[in-house]
Amino acid sequence: MHGRDRMRLPVVELSAATALFSVASTACFPDVEPNVFSLPRCDRVEPRCGPDGDESCCADAVVLGGTFNRVNDPQFPATVADFRLDRFEVTVGRFRQFVAGYPQNKPQKDHGSHPRLAGSGWDPGWDDHLPRDRAELEASLGCDPNFRTWTDGPGPNEELPINCVSWYVAFAFCAWDEARLPTKAEWNYAAAHGNEQRTYPWGEATPTPDLAAYGCDTTNMGCLIPRVGSRSPAGDGESGHADLAGSMSEWLLDYHGTHPTPCNDCANLSDKDEDNGREARGGDFAHSTEGLATTFELGFTPESREAFLGFRCAREK
């Protein structure tokens, strides 16, 4: 199913959300011993994420690499090196720092590249797909009048996942954050916990609302997008990543479609069938349990901006 086939969401008011997450740098949470790895753009992001609202929204966790079968299919073996992956989907509060510096922080040629994948960085030919200035960027974040999470100023949505972002904007944010979009193989490896080949990030248990945010009845005026990490730790992957299933479908580096074989830190960077678009994984708050499985794949045109599309970033260990 492509982005144009997905449901449109009806009008509903977003209400104030609660709690958030834990430490990734001294600037984020100065009273706690800092993580040995500090994200570069976290100095003004409050530590309000996670189940208790006291974790850094910029925290990440190491994924130890190995070999596994993509989409749990022995036809598609892959080897992935160690990498770091954001614990949470990028939040409104974290994205606000990027908006404040836009457009001066647009990516330059080859920024946001995967170090083991030639040609994976920013292509200047994509420049025209980015908003021209800050006003246009902010306007683009209002793709849905009721389920957009962006607000013009800081408020109760800071701990919600940013949505309504195109693949190009997600790429640009990660490049600005001295990171990159994860590959399809990396995301799948983290969600399936490598060669455990999990059906869901938490294991084999049937999805429930305690494990993931999905199946929101958008005809119900009380339907809300939850804060990031609201199902943590029960719904986390083995390496501690929250919302790999549910919340937002997450943009990935690859074109949707084929699985390159052999695969040693591979990505589909050449299958440019515009009908397939770019990959997004993990299901979302508005759709059924089908999308929550680690084997479920979707493609969206990279210009797509939907209330159920978000992202998280990856970087080197």
TL;DR of this structure?
The chain is largely without helices or strands and 317 residues long. The chain has helices at 92-100, 134-140, 167-176, 184-192; strands at 60-63, 66-69, 77-80, 83-86, 249-255, 278-281, 298-300, 309-310, 314-316.
According to CATH, the homologous superfamily is paralog of FGE (formylglycine-generating enzyme)
Which shape, going by the Cα principal axes?
Answer: globular
Number of strands: 9
> What does the main sheet amount to?
4 strands, mixed
Quickly count the helices: 4
Cα distance spanning the termini:
34 Å
Q: State the CATH architecture.
A: Alpha-Beta Complex
Query: What portion of residues is helical?
Result: 10-25%
Which structural class do the helices and strands define? little secondary structure
Cα gyration radius (Å): 18 Å
CATH topology assignment: paralog of FGE (formylglycine-generating enzyme)
From the structure above, extract its key features.
single chain, SUMF_dom, Sulfatase_Mod_Factor_Kinase, three-stranded antiparallel sheet, 4 helices, globular, SUMF1/EgtB/PvdO family nonheme iron enzyme, four-stranded mixed sheet, 11% helix, CTDL_fold, little secondary structure, paralog of FGE (formylglycine-generating enzyme), disordered N terminus, 317 residues
